[in-house]
Amino acid sequence: MTNIIMENGPILSSDIINIAISSNPSLSQEAARKRLSRIDGNIYKLKGFFTDRQILFYSKAIYPSDKYYSGLKNALKEAGKQYYTIIQSLEFHSGYMKKNELASYSINTVLPLTGHVTFDSALEKLQQIRLVSIVDDYVVLFEGISDGINNLHRSKGIEIAKNFLLTQFNEWSRNIGLVSFNSAKYYSEFGKYQFNFVASSYIGTLPKKTVKKTVVPGFVVADCLVYNTINEKQIEFLINKVSALKAQKNIANFIPFLIVDSMDTQALNKLKSNGIVIAFVHELFGSNYKDLLHSLINLITNAGAILKNNPDEYLNIVSSLNKLVEGKTNNLRGDLFELAVGYYQGRICQSIDIGKSILTEEGMREIDVFGVTNDKIFVCECKGYNHKVTKEEIEKWLGKNIPIIRKWLLAQEVYSHKKLIFEFWSTGGFTDDALSLLSERKANTTKYSIEYYDLDQIIKKSKEAGSKKFTAIIQEYYIKEI
After folding, report:
1. Residue ranges in the chain whose pLDDT is less than 70
2. Which superkingdom does the taxonomy of this entry point to (predicted)?
3. What global pTM score does this model have?
4. Residue 12 belongs to some domain of the structure
């Protein structure tokens, strides 16, 4: 059997036994299993991931080669669905996903349930075999099995578009009376599984009455897949969750939705046969919505190049988005503020990068807006919300973030000779003690410059950019709600 493993590994125990019996019909299943159990030497075994207690066998010589990881991924696809579904969901989302959001796209429970592996346990085991890693808030797919699809910027674009859609879905569902007002929760638990959207409902036959005549609401649950044409494989996570919920006793009545922008016929029919409502973006919100969302994702994916080479595209997309949904874009304010700062910096910098990731000795760090001129580097921290930045946030920025990023910049030959300017942009302003600390550090720092801008100063800078449309966007997003 060692030869079978050497030739075909990594290979599951059931496949090894089948190959051995096919080449020697007189060999029984029991005899084959005993032979396999006695294998040692340069053969490694991986247990605890596969159905029916199967074991993955592979030669020591191929670890950790591409062949090993390819075989491991295929074995999980064949017999480790609760782990492979997480990998497949990461692939759909360009290799990156926030941990608290990824749980919705798994078939694992988020609370303990007899006979089920929780999401946290599954994720921990995937980390142990190096198929995923966790960087800050994100779960990252191992590049050895990603086929080059990992793209943090595109993943963020999909994330922002998806979260915006969920907010619009809540608006739609409560406007038609489908869900109770202000009951929606995002990335929340229902029946020990997580969904993108969970809200109580009292319509039709969904509510139940207890023996004491107390009314127990039903629920609307929804997940969201956007940007790619959905196929049968990519909806299995939701079908499995819904099936598991239906098998539970004493579960509240519920209606499951999948919000999508494009889907093939096989996936459509499979969802319908499992009682899942397909909510097409263009049917819920209008024919232009899908194209605009794709434009938004493309803008965030390629923000640096667009803001530098075609900044009007940013202005047009944001203006169109705001008009299309009649101003209900408040949840996009923070997400798009980095682009607003990038638009301004793009007028003075030779190159712009939005959400630039750098690898430091302390791990990955992200720079909201990174601008470069002939003699200067602009490193911008962006907070596009209506609350004031606290002294504690400024202490972290000054005492931790700036030193780590500065050390990295000084180690890069292309940047080390340039003047460094660290900026903090906050539409909500700063608390008094935060302002006092910023003022003190700005006055006493000589090795680099510190700048900080509140809303009034940001409005002034928007006018300096020379675009009335840009100023109007700043005022629309960041004045009306403050």
Report:
1. 322-333, 477, 479-482
2. Bacteria
3. 0.89
4. yes
